[in-house]
Amino acid sequence: MAVIEKKIRLAGSKGSREVVALFDSGAMYSCVRSDLARQLEKVVPIPGAMTFRTAKRGETLTARERISVNIHINGCRVSDEFMVIPGLVEPVIIGAATMQKWRMELDFEHDRVIIDPRVTKLRLLSAGHRPEIGEVSPTAPDYKEEQPRPVLDPGPIRPILKADSGCILQKALTRVKFCTRNSPGFLTWNRPGLD
């Protein structure tokens, strides 16, 4: 178990706050202190309380509520669920499940949290296309297409949530790239400023 402290911004429907979060590789779930949770988002009851063991022998904490908020870190926005824990010492603990979901890496040598901005991209595929194993993705960093051609009629488009994207399209697409090599109708949504 190792920890790094880093300033992040949490944003919910009620507001946003900058806090120093504890990135804890020994904690499975992300947790938030009760008072902070209520400032950010409407708390939702958990069907059946969840009890967690602490590092102190025989001590447990119980979560009966949760919230879902956006996390702004290193210029990237991701979102996840936080267990609301009354009396939590730290305002926010980012656990291993959140770090794995968003491919965050803890660099203990330089005391920093690394997140790849590509995990925040949403990819859309035409209804008939499914990528094959080993297929080159047009969004891969080493992918180079000699003569990119726009697809005039990609067919019906439906969102497919890939394991590395995890984000929800909340506003209209700002820019869309059409790529045709090895994946007809492949669309990539890019947030402004990330490419």
Describe the structure in your own words.
The protein is mainly β. The chain has two domains: 3-115, Acid Proteases (Cathepsin D, subunit A, domain 1, Beta Barrel); 117-195, no CATH class. It is 7% helix and 41% strand. It is built from two helices and 13 strands; from the N terminus they run βββαββββαββββββ. The strands form three sheets. Strands 1-2-7-3-6-5 form a six-stranded mixed β-barrel. β1 and β2 (16-24) form a beta hairpin. The longest helix is centred in the first third of the chain and has 7 residues, at 34-40. It starts with a strand and ends in a 6-residue tail after the last strand. The model is unreliable at 145-195 (pLDDT under 50).
Rounded average pLDDT: 75
What's the CATH class label of the largest domain?
Mainly Beta
The CATH topology of the largest domain, please?
Answer: Cathepsin D, subunit A, domain 1
What is the CATH H-level superfamily of the largest domain? Acid Proteases
User: End-to-end span in angstroms?
Assistant: 34 Å
